[in-house]
Structure formats: C-alpha cells, structure tokens
Hints:
Blueprint: H1 3-20, H2 30-43, E1 47-51, H3 57-63, E2 71-76, H4 82-92, E3 97-101, H5 104-107, E4 115-120, H6 127-134, E5 138-147, H7 154-157, H8 164-178, E6 182-187, E7 193-198
Parallel strand pairs: 1-2, 1-4, 2-3, 4-5
Antiparallel strand pairs: 5-7, 6-7
Helix pairs in contact: 1-4, 2-3
Amino acid sequence: MNPYKLREALSFVERETHLRTKSYRMLSDGVQGEFLQAFSLMVKPENVLEIGTFTGYATLCLYRGLRENGVLDTVEIDDELTDIYTRAFQIAGADRIHPHLQDAAELIPRLDRVYDIVYIDADKRLYPTFYDMVFDKVRPGGYILADNVIWSGKTASDTHPTDKQTAAIMEFNKKTASDPRVKRLVLPIRDGLALIHKKSDSLSPGQF
C-alpha cells in the first residue's frame, strides 16, 4: 500500500467527517490510527474483519499491513456515509476491502473466512454478543481489538450503570478478562483499546 496515498485518503476522511457529520468524535484520531497501522504491519494479516466502518478511517489503517492476497471485510449498518469511505478507499487504492452494508449480527454467522484480526467498534450494547459470535472465526494466535472499553471513564467508576451501553461494555470487559482462552490488555489509547490475544491452544466451550 502506498503510504502517501493512504495519508491522502485519511486526510480526506477526516475532512469529510468533520464537515458532514455531527458524530466526528467517533472518528479514530491520529494516535490510534498510527497504532492500528503499526499493529497491522506487525501481524501482517491475511484476513481482517471490522465491525463498524463509520467513515473508514480505522478500516484504512488496518488495511495497511494486509498481505497481497488478503481481504478486509468491514460491516456497517448506516448507509448515510457510504460515499465517504467508498471514495477514501479509491483514493488509497485499497481494492481488497469488502464493505458490507447490513446488520453485523446477521452477517457474521454467514462469513466463511478465518480472521487474523477482528476489530470491534460498533453498537456498544452488542459488544458481548459480537465477542461470542466472532471468537471461533479468529484463528488460534489471532487477535480481537475492541474500541471504547474505558468509555470516558464510566467503566472504571460506575459500579451500577443505568445506561445499557456502559453496562454492556462492563460486561464485555469482565467476560474478556476472565476468559481462559485469551490474554487481554487494555491500552490507554484515546477511549481505551482492548487488545485480546486468542491463545494458540484455545478451544470454545463444547469443542474437543
């Protein structure tokens, strides 16, 4: 991937997201984007799954280290911003990104790839569900990343959350922290990024 074309595409995404949306805070910032690029270059994934495209910033960062024969599936249910990420992918020459405009919970069971990286950054209320749905689709030794696990500090300070988003992220954090099949680290990048490593010998409940 041409890093200059990538930089041009990311600048386009930043500009269009700030101009056209009220949710620009959802956009990955430069620090997080650099981390995702570095992580992708380190892992050199063959297949990546992203749950929550938004305007495509993190998508492009994860694409950076994709192998020549690799594929990145990205899922987004909101159809209002497709022209932003479609144009950005074209600018970057990222022709092995497969956008899926539909409900991730309906699509994921039908995906038949094994993924090296899964990145979760969608409806916070569904984080525990997404984790369970993608686990068997991650190769042993692969990674699950999840954004916003600190959730503006609410997950650390609110022991009895009243909103469903905070409650679900707290459930996700407890689930992943206690799962013996993985090793987990929360990085204090932006709003908290969970790095979850699926052990090479991990088995799902009921597998032999």
